[in-house]
Amino acid sequence: MADTVTTEKAETVAADKAETVTAERAETAAEQVETVANPHGGRVPLRGWVAPILVLTVLAALMGTMYLGFTADPDSNLHDFPVALVNQDDGDVLDGKQVNIGDQIAEAMAAQVPADKVDLRLLGMSEAHRQLQNGQIYGAIVIPSDFSKRLSILGASAVVPGEVERPVINVHTNPRAGTYASTIMQRISNRALAEVDTTVGTQLTEQVRAKLGSTQLSGAARLQLAQPIDIAVSPYHPLPAGTGQGLSAFFYTLVLLFSGFSCALIIHAMVDNVLGYVPAEYGPWYRHLAPAPISRWRTLLVKWAMAVVTAPLVSGVFLGVGTLLDMSIEHPLPLFLYGTLAIAAVSVTGLSVLAAFGTIGLIVNMIVFVVLGLPSSSGSIPIEATPRWIANMATFEPMHQMYLAVRALLFFDGNLAAGLGTGVWMTVLGLGLGLLLGAIATHTYDLRGLYRLGVSHRPVKSPVTA
């Protein structure tokens, strides 16, 4: 009987001590919250009012530099713009000599086109087709096999009248690689071939005059010889209907990025409210629950899980909306799967940044995903027409990698070499870095006892008196 009473007393003492420890910890947490929230005795220091203004001003300056900087003058920013030059000319015999005008034109263009602005690639036809199909070049200038022969016939027609066709140089644009890139391609080819047309016309006129001697050329013959080349511009692989002139890939990438970014912000705020670490206001109603004893790591795991569950749902919604709007989607399942991966990667990484940096993580996420992402995406203006410092960011910026993958799925038959392989690999790498950042940051904070609101997640160990 005495043993029973002693045991009951010990249990009562232990319970009282546990309640005392819990109350003390709650009071300490409350004091910490009060101290952080009110360090100046109810008076907000001047820097508290100035800081938001400064942050917004800096963000505005950064956004203005990025967005206006990459759209202001694409022509002056042009660098390393990939264009193929294909010379198929077989040449011709003129006055007993073998002449190949195509070779002369190719050499002249290689010398005249500024190498710092245009990456002029001398390719065979099969290789040019392959690079066009993979979106590796924005266009191709093709000199046909009968070019020299037709030019000789044109010159002879000035002496012996007859109906002849002018030699043709074909310019193939690649609208699937970018609509604005096709416009730049046409401008480059027009400038280069206008010089070629004038030079060839001058040479041809001199040759014909040498043959005619004192005989004068007619006005029609002079006009025909002055500009002897026809330039035929055509898209290599025209875009199908329902692509918004090639902009559908850019906007589909944009909604994937924004949905992942938004998921991170919404999940972070709502989960923290449910766990009692952040208050919530719904109109005039205010709710702030008691903080739950949960570690930073487990909190992040919950948020990651919600992001992973949400990603396929959101990706499916986008795919369904695109289908209902008659958007051209040739590979719906791969697009759905990649959309899920992209949304999950952005959400998980965004949540990790918020877990690691707190409120500052909002600004970090905005800069990484939005401010720096859109200008370097190459979805509206090719990166070769942006300032080099913006183009350099495309090597690691998430939106550019996502755009390459989406563009490959929508316009290049899901070809890995067209950017899908790079996009998937870089998205997985970004997801891995996000997971690593979140795991390291939250474990470090938990191990050092840096609890949120001072609320420990570890169970209270109460001593039991024998």
Record keyword descriptors for this entry.
466 residues; 5-stranded mixed sheet; two-stranded antiparallel ribbon
Description:
- The protein is of the alpha/beta class and 466 residues long.
- Helix content is 61%, strand content 9%.
- The protein contains 15 helices and nine strands.
- β8 (280-282) and β9 form a beta hairpin.
- α4 (101-112) packs across α7 (179-212) and α6 (147-159) packs antiparallel against α8 (219-226).
- The radius of gyration is 34 Å and the shape is elongated.
Q: Percentage of helical residues?
A: 55-70%
Mean pLDDT: 84
Q: Mind telling me the C-alpha Rg?
A: 34 Å
Major sheet characteristics: 5 strands, mixed
> Which H/E pattern describes the elements?
HHHEEEHEHEHEHHEHEEHHHHHH
Q: What is the molecular shape? A: elongated
Q: What ranges have pLDDT less than 50 throughout 5 or more consecutive residues? A: 17-37
Spatial sequence of strands, sheet with the most strands = 4-1-5-6-7
